Amino acid sequence: MTRANGVAYALVARETTPLAEHSEVEGNAPEVAKKVLQGIASNNRQVSRTSYVQGIYLFHVLVSDGISFICMAEEDFGRRVPFVFLEDVRQSFTAKYGTQALHAAAYAFNEEFSRVLNQKMNYYNTNPQADTIGRVRKEISEVKNIMVENIELVLERGEKIDLLVDKTDSLQDETFRFRRQARRIKQEMWWRSMRMTILLIIVVFLGLYFVLALACGPRLKNC
Asked: Which CA distances in Å does 5 have to 2, 46, 82, 105, 121?
């Protein structure tokens, strides 16, 4: 197998049916890729990312909605850039062909999409920013994970939130009892004041009567 730096081979397939491919090397990369397809054919209805070792090469696989995207690169090229490359290929292929790929014949899109594979391989193999793009996308993925964890931590504080609600309800009950007690005390004070007023009126009346009785007699007939 002739060696090449970076992504050396790329394939798009439905189950074991190749739809488009491009190779920068000579050798048996297509045969190995077909073996990989046979191995993942039973698990191609969900998004998955896997790498398979073949000598000094890694076959990186991205499976999405029944379509497999495979690329081959030397092991020392790493995994981040190849998977960013595959995600880019997946987006371009899905946008261009959509559900056509689910029923297309073998190599139906090869004439057109092999050129796209060639262009993207050249870009990710030669552009120094390709690794930066991969790193940024990886960091975005890590941020998503952190956000989910933070949300889960917030959800785990539900018990504390419930306790706070219970305490708030208790404060409301205490406020209600305080108001009721204050109303009762106010009423008691009013009645006490009323009794004092009535008693004062009676005292004044009796005092006035006593003065008049001294001057006019007990029956007040002489006034």
From this structure: 10, 30, 12, 31, 10
Q: What is the mean pLDDT of each run of 10 residues along the chain (223 residues)?
A: 72 93 88 82 61 84 90 87 92 93 93 94 84 54 40 39 41 58 78 86 82 70 64
Residue pair 36/11 in contact by the 8 Å Cβ criterion: no
Tell me how far apart the 2 most distant CA atoms of the chain are, in Å. 147
Beta pairing class for 48-54 and 7-14: unpaired
3-state secondary structure of 74: strand
Strand ranges of the sheet holding 7-14, from the earlier edge strand across to the other edge? 17-23, 7-14, 67-74, 57-64, 48-54
Distant-in-sequence, close-in-space partners of 68: CB < 8 Å, separation ≥ 6: 11, 12, 13, 14, 15, 37, 40, 44, 61, 62
What gap in Å lies between CA 154 and CA 168, rounded to an integer?
Answer: 20
